[in-house]
Every structure is written in structure tokens, then in C-alpha cells.
Amino acid sequence: MEYDYNSQRSMMVLPEYGRNIQKMVEYAVQIEDKEDRNKAARAIIAIMGNLNPHLRDVTDFKHKLWDHLFIISDFKLDIDSPYEKPTRETLFEKPKQVPYNDYNIRYKHYGKIIELLIKEACEFKEGEERNALIRLIANHMKKCYLTWNRDVVDDRSIFEDLKTLSGGKIVVGDELKLAETRDIMSKSKKKRPPKKK
Predict the structure, then answer these.
(1) Are 81 and 62 in contact (CB under 8 A)?
(2) What CA–CA distance (Å, rounded) separates 182 from 37?
(3) Exposure of 25 by Cβ count < 10 A (0-12 exposed, 13-18 middle, 19+ buried)?
(4) Which tens digits make up the pLDDT trace of 13-41?
(5) Domain spans, the chain
(6) What is the Cα–Cα distance from 159 to 136, expressed in whole angstroms?
(7) What is the average pLDDT across 140-147?
(8) Cα separation values, 158 from 7, 58, 134, 189, Å
(9) Closest Cα partner for 177 from 150, 161, 159, 164?
(10) Are the C-beta atoms of residues 72 and 22 closer than 8 Å to each other?
């Protein structure tokens, strides 16, 4: 009695579709009549789509299925596809380098967004709205500081950093009261998921 082991079979190109889809594609490649190959390919695409029904609403889902069909066939399948046939070169080419903005962030623990918010606050006219925005920014700065530095931070340090980042345009006195360190720390502890045992 001869057994058929997976280790003796050919490697699956896209294992998420399973061995049966691969066998169907291998069979479709061998069909001589192009019209019959096209029918077989459409049937295989329908089955591949049924394997992942939750992805049907995803943009370009059908296009992805056709690309996967060609990949599984090792680009040997000669059929009329509704989409441009991918090539082996495009599949294995290196992705283009992502351009990163090289921001010069003065205090990395606050981040670029805080600097942009401070810049906006400087443009506001004196008044209650500006004061409320400065209070929100200062509280968020304290929270950011405590995220990266677990030491207790003095509100004066936050006010000094705020003054520095605003180029001296925002000067805050001791009348501004920020959230207590213990309150910020306890809120961040509550948000953390419990440790698994």
C-alpha cells in the first residue's frame, strides 16, 4: 500500500488557498482549448472568492484573486483576464523607498504634533479660547512627558518647554494648574490590558 504524504507533494505557492485549488490550477494550465481554460479559470476564481467571503467588500478583491491565480500557476496560465496579467518581475521587484519627512523635532518626547499645535496657539488672539488651547496643550505635554519619562515632572518644566517651543510667545504663570501626575499615571495604568498568566 502506497501512501501520499504532503512532504512528497510539490510546494504550495499560496498555502492559504489549499492543495485543491493548486491542483485545479495545475489542471487548468494543461487544458489545450483556450475557451475551456477561460471557463476553468473563472470557476477557480469563484471558488477562491468563496474561500474568503469576508473580503468581498475589499477594494480590488477580484483583481487580487486573478493575480493570485497567475501566481499559483507560476505565470504559465494563458487565459483572457479582465485585469492586466502580472509578471514575475513585478512580483519580486523591491518596493520603492518611502520618502520620510526629516522633521527637526526639538523635544522628541512631545512629538511634531505638539510643535504644530503650539505654532497654531501662537496665532490665536489673546482671550479665553487661546488660554483654553494653551491649557490643553500643556496638559498633553505633561502626559507625553510622563509617557516617556516615568519621573515626576514639575509643572514649571512644562511651562519652560512651552515657552521655548513657542519662541517666547507663550508665557504661562503659576496660575495655570495642570492635571496631577498621579491622575495621569493612574489613567494610563487603567488603559493597559491585564497581564496574561
Answers:
(1) no
(2) 69
(3) buried
(4) 888 888 899 999 999 999 999 999 999 99
(5) 9-92, 111-191
(6) 12
(7) 87
(8) 63, 45, 11, 22
(9) 159
(10) yes
pLDDT band for 193, please (50, 70, 90 cuts): low
Residue 6 has a pLDDT of 67
CA distance 162 to 177: 14
- 33 grid coordinates: 482549448
The residue whose grid cell reads 483583481 is 63
d(CA 11, CA 82): 28
- Cα 172-176-181 angle, rounded to 5 deg: 110
For 67-79, what is the mean pLDDT? 91
Determine the average pLDDT of the residues in 44-69. 86
Q: How far is CA 113 from CA 21, 68, 148, in A?
A: 49, 40, 16
Cell of 95: 518596493
Q: Which residue has the cell 499615571?
A: 185
Contact 71, 78 (CB under 8 A): no
| Helix (H/G/I), strand (E/B), else coil: 83 | coil
